[in-house]
Amino acid sequence: MLTLLCCGLLLAARESVTWILPGSGETSSALALPNSDLAEQIRDMHNKVLEIWQELGRRREAEAGSMEAMHAVCRVQPSSSLAAEQPRVTGWVLFRQQAPGARLEAFFDLEGFPAQPNGSSHAIHVHQFGDLSQGCDSTGPHYNPLSVPHPQHPGDFGNFAVRDGSLWKHRPVLAASLAGPHSIVGRAVVVHAGEDDLGRGGNQASVENGNAGRRLACCVVGTSGPAAWARQMQEHAERKKRRRDSECK
Ligand SMILES: *[C@@H]1O[C@H](CO)[C@@H](O)[C@H](O)[C@H]1NC(C)=O
Ligand SMILES: [Cu+2]
Ligand SMILES: [Zn+2]
Questions:
Q1: For residue 194, what are the CA distances in angstroms to 3, 113, 157?
Q2: Cα 157 to ligand 2 centre (Å)
Q3: Of the residues 125, 137, 187, 197, which is catalytic?
Q4: DSSP string spanning 181-229?
Q5: Ligand 2 is a single-atom ion; what residues have CB below 5 A from it?
Q6: pLDDT at 63
Q7: For ligand 1, which residues put their CB under 6 angstroms from it?
Q8: Which residues, if any, are the signal sequence (predicted)?
């Protein structure tokens, strides 16, 4: 759009030159003044166009710079309203998104689940409010900006298998976002005691929350720098290597 405008200006400037030039060969000094005025105007305009062009370039560079990935962290803590006999789940959920509108990636690193039964499945969702004043109970229902049934909410992360009481998972494609009007920043991640029935439970609760049971632990998603993600990536690589090594022995 701006490019078009600039070209238009240049074209208009050139046309006014050729239009006035036939008179410029005359010896009349009366024409000399308007002509030099015009030349100055054209120079001015040229400089302005150049300035706009350079400014555009600078902005494009700045945009590319701000296209650095967005990060967020969520430090999972047991719900303060948890009954004493319930498991105390702690850990981290880390998020990375390369650009607004790009897919969201996350690391889930949690421990403190009951070790038995081994392989149990736990639902994790984004809930509407980042309000932990009544523990995880005050985080409200599933975050549902488009009023769709469960499990189509942006923060329906599904089920996570727990091994020996802990869970450690990289999910490369999540529907939620850290940017835009439906950003999950400031909202809560909730870890449940039960499995998500993914809307197939045949009751109203199933298409609202997947009948995932008690809210064991939760946290509020907050923006962060890239350091936590980088550490997790490194640990991820090391754990993979350790697992490979132990499997090879
Ligand atoms: C739990 O399951 C994992 C893999 O599914 C297995 O490696 C581990 O040994 C199991 N732990 C127990 C206590 O059975
Ligand atoms: Cu939930
Ligand atoms: Zn949901």
A1: 57, 11, 14
A2: 9
A3: 125
A4: TTB-TTSEEEEESS---TT-SSSTTHHHHTT---EEEEEE-EEE-SHHH
A5: 125, 190
A6: 63
A7: 118-119, 163-164
A8: 1-18
Query: Tell me, what's the pLDDT at 8?
Result: 39
pLDDT at 156: 98
pLDDT score for 248: 75
The neighbouring-strand residues paired with 127 are 142, 188
**Count of helix runs (H) and strand runs (E) in the chain:** 4, 10
Q: What's the pLDDT at 243?
A: 85
Q: Which of 31, 15, 11, 12 lies closest to 23 in space, CA to CA? A: 31
2.60.40.200, 1.10.340.30, 2.120.10.30, 1.10.287.1700: which CATH number matches 70-248? 2.60.40.200
Please tell me the distance from the alpha carbon of residue 174 to that of residue 82, in angstroms, as a whole number. 28
What one-character DSSP code corresponds to residue 172?
Answer: E
Q: Which mean pLDDT values do the consecutive 10-residue runs of the chain (249 residues) have?
A: 41 40 44 71 84 72 69 98 95 96 96 95 98 98 98 98 96 96 98 98 98 98 96 90 83
Cβ neighbourhood burial of 16 (10 Å; 0-12, 13-18, 19+)? middle
Residue 204's CB is within 10 A of a number of other CB atoms, namely 9
Q: Which of 96, 122, 192, 197 is catalytic?
A: 192
Active site annotation includes 192: yes
Residue 222: CB atoms within 10 A of its CB come to: 14
